[in-house]
Amino acid sequence: MDAVSDGTAVPLSAVSDGAAVPGSPGAAAPPPVTVTPAAAELIRSLRGRHGPLMFHQSGGCCDGSAPMCYPAGEFRTGGSDILLAALAVDGVPEPVEFWMSKSQWDLWKHTRLTVDVVPGRGSGFSLEAPDGVRFLIRSHLAP
Amino acid sequence: MARYDAPTHWQSRYDHFIGGEYVKPHGGQYFENPTPVTGQTFCEVARGTADDVEKALDAAHGAADAWGRTSVAERALILNKIADRMQDNLESLAVAETWENGKPVRETLAADIPLAIDHFRYFAGAIRAQEGSLGEIDDDTVAYHFHEPLGVVGQIIPWNFPILMATWKLAPALAAGNAVVLKPAEQTPASIHYWLSLVADLLPPGVVNIVNGFGVEAGKPLASSPRVAKVAFTGETTTGRLIMQYASENIKPVTLELGGKSPNIFFDDVSARSDEFLDKALEGFTMFALNQGEVCTCPSRALIQQGHYSDFLAAAVDRTKAVKQGHPLDTDTMIGAQASNDQLEKILSYLDIGRQEGARVLTGGSRADLGGELSGGYYVEPTVFEGDNSMRIFQEEIFGPVVSVTSFADLDDAVKIANDTLYGLGAGVWTRDMNTAYRAGRAIQAGRVWTNCYHAYPAHAAFGGYKQSGIGRENHKMMLEHYQQTKNLLVSYSTKKLGFF
């Protein structure tokens, strides 16, 4: 369950459009989002089939409170969103951006998120569902 | 106690229902459909793709004109016949729905299926009674307003009430004269086909088309198609936004129901007497366990006034401990299985973060292993957390049998906490003082405020969200207009020219 090196976030300044993260990760602070080895493997696989990817964290019912994985640019982010991380995943040439609505992050910002994967069935329009798996967020209190 | 046998009326495989007949998926692929009761697969379902959606849209467009021109009497008669068939098969529909979704059969027998039946009857009546309007602009000019069907609409159904939620969308759309392409949830794709086996002969071919499959493969082509005049979706915020984005490309309307984090507010005077009403309020608290908490309006935040906080909460925890968890097909079982493994995992992840944030577990808090064949199923203990409204378990929809409890000082404090959420779908207010009930109900920013009741869903009571909970109002005749165009004929009865040219 622990985050691994191939899933840590790169500094936002390297990729960001300028959206600021509250309590922006400094050199010592843990990144707000990391991925497990299993999730990294799934991201590599999806990248191979679908091209560059992005995440947007959902809220609300049914498949809500879960991260949605789309082809990069499929979901149009805007001023109501915040870029939390640009995930560097081994074997994926470009960072995978992880977004959330700002209003939701205001309620989550005291926690750090780990993208994991579990066997599952459905997920809105998220790319991994046909594989019989589902991305899942595990949360930890920020230090 | 009675235990229903596991249903045997399933086909081993379901294709798409297009143009009045079953059609194999263009891609030739199927996916397995497990029952959450045991985790075992009980049928295969067609894995739809854009080609299948196009074929369904062809069929729907072929049927829409004639269906839209049938008289309202004829359409109402068909809806009533659908209701009659469902009434005649209520038990088998209930058992099918329980096997599909995992919910207890006492709920499907008493709520899901009876509500669905009534819903078809309600819209059969509503469309008969609907009238256009005329406005007398001046002595010679009249503005007539007619309702016209939109044509072909797309509907994406959630998995928490597979038949009832499909009915909430189908009944008004069909009553209004639209043809439908419907995608059931991939977690619960089969029970709608059992329903269809009972009613398909009543519907002209192409009026209802069902394409199965995953959101990304079948839902997206449906939601983004320029050939649908409207998209109706129940689900979560990110997919809701994505559907609005697709709709914006085609300048099409959407209705969205995207969930909530509903407060259930118990004022001090609830405990003023130990009587029937107090007993009802304690049941109202325990409603968070209805449908395993997999309800957009789950009363997942209980706000209890400080004066009776300890006593009421103690009694509420006792009531929660009395919730009988067991085989969903036992008529005594009050809480069944979560609908899918990923849903189970998500709930467990929230039980984890709730504890990390310092919330106290007053009862429950773990996965339940019910033993035997149910060991493979997805069961969670009804859980009561005590904490603070800033905690994530108070702010996010867990969609499980989990309630987070906190206290409040007075009416203003209750309203402040109740409204401190991104969502605004449902709320509950419990008090013996109707002035308090009225003020609280009007101040809470939510589309439905149950007052001295909870989780009632009668047809003719509008249901929909404020804030990030969505757009539109289902369950009421006003939903007809979400499936209709307005045609204005502006008619002059004067023979005199204007004199401009």
Structural notes for this entry:
The complex is a heterodimer of chains A (143) and B (501). Chain A contains two helices and eight strands, in the order ββαββββαββ. In chain A, the strands form two sheets. In chain A, strands 1-5-6-3-4 form a five-stranded mixed beta sheet. In chain A, strands 2-7-8 form a three-stranded mixed beta sheet. The longest helix of chain A has 14 residues. Chain B is of the alpha/beta class and 501 residues long. Chain B has two domains: 265 residues, 3-Layer(aba) Sandwich (Aldehyde Dehydrogenase, Chain A, domain 1), CATH 3.40.605.10; 189 residues, Aldehyde Dehydrogenase, Chain A, domain 2. Chain B contains 15 helices and 23 strands. In chain B, helix 2 packs antiparallel against helix 4, helix 4 runs parallel beside helix 5 and helix 9 packs across helix 10. The longest helix of chain B has 25 residues. Classes of the chains: A alpha/beta (143), B alpha/beta (501). At the A-B interface, helix 2, strand 7 and strand 8 of A face helix 7, helix 8 and helix 11 of B.
Radius of gyration of chain B: 24 Å
The chain pair with the largest interface is: A-B, 42 and 54 residues
Helix percentage range of chain A: 10-25%
Count of helical stretches of chain B: 15
Structural class of chain B: alpha/beta
Strands of chain A, total number: 8
Classify the secondary structure makeup of chain A into a structural class. Answer: alpha/beta
CATH topology of the largest domain in chain B: Aldehyde Dehydrogenase, Chain A, domain 1
The number of distinct β-strands of chain B equals: 23
Strand order of the largest sheet of chain B: 15-16-17-14-13-19-20
Based on the structure given, which CATH architecture of the largest domain in chain B is correct? Answer: 3-Layer(aba) Sandwich
- Any idea of the CATH class of the largest domain in chain B? Alpha Beta
Helix content of chain B: 25-40%
Oligomer: heterodimer
